[in-house]
Amino acid sequence: MSFALRALSTACLAVVLASCASSVAKPSASTTGAGWVAAANPHAVAAGLEVLRNGGSAVDAAIAVQVMLGLTEPQSSGIGGGAFLLVYDPSTRQVSAFNGRETAPAAAQADMFMSTADTTLPRASAVLSGRATGVPGVMRLLERAHGKFGRRPWAETFEPAIRLAGEGFEVSPRMARYLNGSYPQVQTADVRKLFARPDGTALQAGDRFRNPAYVSTLQTLATTGADALYEGPLAKQIVARTRAEPLGGAMTEADLANYTVEEVAPLCRIVWAHQVCVPPPPSSGIGVLQLLALLERTDIEQRGPNDPRAWLLFAQASRLMYSDRDRYVADPRFVDVPVSELLAPDYIASRARLIDRDVSVMPAAGEFLAGRVGDDATREAAGTSHFVISDASGMVVSMTTTVETYFGSGRTVGGFVLNNQMTDFSLNPRDGERPAANAVAGGKRPRSSMAPIVVLDLQGQFVAALGSPGGNAIPAYNGKTLLATLAWGMDLRSAVELPNLIARGGEVVAEKDKFAPGVVEQLAKLGLELRPPKGEESGLHGLWRQADGTMLGAADSRREGTVSSVVVGP
Fold it and tell me: Which helix (H) or strand (E) element contains residue 148?
């Protein structure tokens, strides 16, 4: 691809998209076709397919998938958390982005996670505190998207999860593994009570789990709408639970009642002759775009997954991306985020020239904003899910959703866990004399590694949707998969299964046993020592429209996810 095409500006991209708008008639809901769901739990996939089979849109199915994940994968996401959502509309060939990230209570203070003027609270204490929970956003997000793209009644989308929560289901090995792990959240009284056997011990794989409290909550949400979570008895319970000791939070009923979802323009750039679209900050989608742009400036396209040099390039570009993301990405309503500057062709070219330097030299962030923003002390943890849905009309949803760490803050109400998203802020609000961009502030949304993706061709036609959980590794997981599909021409399933490598600062972790023979040894000779992975493994899920128009779905084998389709039509 020519340099001129690579350097197309945002304005040019807007012209490309605008020229395609409304050029295709919107298919009717009864058009015969296939609907697809890729998600992290088979029950969630089945719930989404049920809604699609009944004529629902991809957004209708997303509601069913999310509320089911809150039942069957509660360690990762739920109605007490937040999400970023992309929707591709085939009638306009446009992508809509919805920001349902949690917000800090209005009374939240920048130093709320400091134990002294110079010392942050121990992370476990911060996570388990009442201060850890932000105002949840996922139900308002789904309500907003349903109002724009829904076809079936809101209440209908809750039926599969209500039914299963009442009947019960067998606890999966993954859910049991986290319930019986050493995480501080699973030691709390709330989690031990909700996810317990009759004798009070933690649920085990194969046990039947019923959640009558969740049934009641979902029935109220189904009949009343998302307001049920933000006003009235359930809102009072959320506030009371977050204000309880230890370290009670500042959330009020007004914080819940005033929560709003942002519908924003997606951030799109052209890489390897495709339009890649992500949510703008505070999502880390900008990091994915920057990583791809850096790699496009190298010869990695002529290499492949068996070439050690390719992985060295990926690692070095990842370090550059993370150094910028960690300093500058935050809530743009509160701080200046230099989005255009970080993705400008001249800046990308200057940063790409650093890829070939000594691997022992850790890259610093680029200097923007006259040095007014310092490094921060954000420590993103695991506990997230991603799913992708396509309906028979061609509408596609790509959504990443989370309660932050496993089982959130370890506090529950109404049969679901409350998030600990406030600890996605920098616990220390300052770097010496300079403020951290991602410091706590009332009403602010914390930076997120979540980055759902939609890929289009240059005519605005849908090509792919994908994403992953994984805490701060999400940009690397997504970047690896897009590199393999867009540059190396691999099919989506093979790309998902490639080894994961995350290079951030001085640490490089990777799935060493998944590389081709000799790659790890050659990387060591090049100065790149790989350490075993820690934290959350990838959970990549995606759909890819192949050249013949058929859809290929992928579900990461590292998790319990599945991908399946259903024929929809008269």
Answer: helix 138-149
| 3-class secondary-structure state, position 286 | helix
Report how far residue 33's alpha carbon sits from residue 395's, in angstroms, rounded to the nearest whole number. 12
Bridge partners, residue 411, by sequence: none
**What is residue 382's predicted lDDT score, i.e. its pLDDT?**
61
Using the predicted structure, report yes or no on whether residue 374 has a pLDDT greater than 90.
Answer: no
CB 379, CB 400: distance < 8 Å: no
Tokens representing residue 229 in the block: 């979570």
Q: Which residue has the tokens 């004798």?
A: 199
Shortest CA distance to 205 belongs to which of 250, 241, 230, 175? 175
> CA 28, CA 395: separation in Å to the nearest integer?
11
DSSP bridge pairs for 87: 96, 397
Compare 142 and 10 and report the one with higher pLDDT: 142
Residue 201: both structure tokens together: 């011990």
Residue closest to 328 by CA, chosen among 446, 445, 452, 436: 436
Q: Helix 58-72 vs helix 212-224: angle between axes, to the nearest 10 degrees?
A: 160
DSSP 8-state code for residue 483: I
Question: How many distinct helices (H) and strands (E) make up the chain?
Answer: 20, 21
Short-list 359, 314, 366, CA closest to 479: 314
Tokens coding 97: 């982005």
The amino acid at 564: S
Q: Are 95 and 87 in contact (CB under 8 A)?
A: yes
List CB contacts of 185: < 8 A, sequence separation 6 or more: 127, 128, 191, 405, 406, 407, 408, 409, 410
CA proximity to 395, closest of 40, 98, 38, 27: 27
Residue reference for tokens 């501080």: 184
- Mean predicted confidence (pLDDT) in 216-234: 97
64 vs 367: CA distance, rounded Å: 44
Residues 12 and 15: their CA atoms lie apart, in Å, by 5
Q: How confident is the model at residue 9 (pLDDT cuts 50, 70, 90)?
A: very low
Q: Read off the tokens for 394.
A: 């061609």
User: For the chain, what is the largest distance between any 2 Cα atoms, rounded to a whole number of angstroms?
Assistant: 67
Give the C-alpha separation, 398 to 450, whole Å.
Answer: 11
Residue 481 appears among annotated catalytic residues: no
Q: What residue type is assigned to position 362 of the chain?
A: M
Q: What is the pTM of this model?
A: 0.92
497 CB neighbour count, 10 Å cutoff = 18
Instruction: Map tokens 């999502």 to a residue.
Output: 283
Contacts of 394 (CB under 8 A, 6+ apart): 27, 33, 88, 90, 462
CA 157 to chain centre: 22
Peptide bond into 233 cis (omega under 30): no
Q: Given the residues 133, 157, 188, 384, select the one marked as catalytic.
A: 384
- Report whether 499 contacts 484 (CB < 8 A): no
